[in-house]
Description:
The protein is of the alpha+beta class. The chain contains six helices and 14 strands. It is globular, with a radius of gyration of 20 Å.
Amino acid sequence: MHVRVLFFGVLKDIFSEAVDSIQMPTDATVATLLDHFRARAPQLDQLWTSLAVAVNQEYALPTQPLADGDEVALLPPVSGGNHTPYIALVREPIQAEALVAQLKQGEDGAVVVFDGIVRNNSRGRRTLYLVYESYEEMALKQMRELAAEASQGFAIRDVLLVHRLGKLEVGETSVLLAVASAHRAAAFDACRWLIDTLKKTVPIWKKEHFEDGAVWADGEPFPAEVKGAPAS
């Protein structure tokens, strides 16, 4: 089978091209492809251990099988290095396992994960699906500020924070939060603080759809310091 491979950043310089098309065995996985290119640049072992991989624009684990015609992107660490938290609002399903795997580093003693999922009931009624909407520019800004504040206030190495928008089915991840640290206590504390504060301050709203109608979920009160002045 043939696979289209995209190179970004320093990898374009290493392989002197941005795109390659290679033939792989029919049972090839992401790991097989990585081994192929690692053999071409074995002197860059540290870089290979820090790469992320996307298959057809979705993050992928090394064990993921490849298929004929797949597009595989090899992604070196983004500008700013490993200490730039991964913050995103997305409309496609969140690939929790792959994202958390990319967060882990050798110096971490713990990664604490909050994986918020859509449950099948609310308010004593059966939930059909949820719809999330957001003031996106402000939400991303607030999420980045929360990650920065957590990094300064807790003994942690890195933060990952992804929130889904649009229509979500029961069982899908709505928000993924992961905190990496040398010690579990700091990771637990930071993770709890981040999700609690996000729920109170980041402008994201949820509409719950039931068999007999739909309602906007009651939000948590804004902290006093972010409220507007009370009406006179």
